[in-house]
Amino acid sequence: MASTPSGVNRFYLLVGVLVLGGAGTLGYLVTRPKAVSIPANVTVLAADTAGFRGYILGADSAKLEVSEWADFQCPACQSFETLQFGVVRRQLIETGQVRWRYRDFPLDQPHHQTRLAAHSAACAEEQGRYWEQHRLIYQQQATWAGNSAAEGILRDLARQAGLDLAKYDACMRSAKYAGRIQASLAEGMKLGVNSTPTFLIGGRLYPGALSSDSIKALVRSQLAKPGA
């Protein structure tokens, strides 16, 4: 029995829809962003650390430098950042007493996404937005940590921080700062850091999420020493 014209039209319409749908799916598979992976235990090259010794906040003329080794996925680090660091920043860093140096110390077990977050912040530093992304990553830790969509969430935080997303995406795909993150971890381990957060104040390590009052007391003790 011959097909009617309307039946033929419906057949070709269906074929067209399937072809367009297949083309769309193929286009998405080809153009979708590749998943980002930041490798661990990479070989650190001289270029990874040349001219870089950490993320610095504060004046070069500050009399005392405090170093913090921390992990973006660490709950205690998040607690320090969100509850204590604002006070430290206002009372010690912005007053010119302290220069703060932040160092990544990724604890890959059990924090499987910590290097991804550290690299996200490093890519923000490229665009002069490190501390904005740093703050957002810690504030939203409960949202991205342990989430299979962490990469996309961190990207949205980069948007909120005002980053150029095309440049950010290229930076993340390159994993160009994997060596920098590894070098930071190695530096901390060499000094004896074994947990996060850990602070280096006056040549001594202080593990744990210190209160702002504790840090102020330690800083003032150092500044009161002769020759400080």
Describe this structure in words.
- This protein has helices at 5-31, 46-49, 75-83, 85-93, 114-126, 130-139, 141-144, 150-160, 165-174, 178-191, 212-223; strands at residues 55-57, 64-70, 98-104, 198-201, 204-207.
- With 228 residues, it is of the alpha+beta class.
- The protein has two domains: 1-32; 46-223, Glutaredoxin (3-Layer(aba) Sandwich).
- A hairpin with a 2-residue loop joins strand 4 and strand 5.
- Helix 5 runs parallel beside helix 8 (150-160).
Whole-number average pLDDT? 89
Largest sheet: 5 strands, mixed
Strand percent estimate:
5-15%
Q: Could you say which overall geometry the principal axes of the C-alpha atoms support?
A: globular
Count of helical stretches = 11
For the record, what is the CATH homologous superfamily label of the largest domain?
A: Glutaredoxin
Distance between the termini: 101 Å
**CATH C-level of the largest domain:** Alpha Beta
How many strands?
A: 5
Order of helices and strands: HHEEHHEHHHHHHEEH
Overall radius of gyration:
24 Å
Briefly note the structural class of the backbone.
alpha+beta
The fold-level CATH name of the largest domain is Glutaredoxin
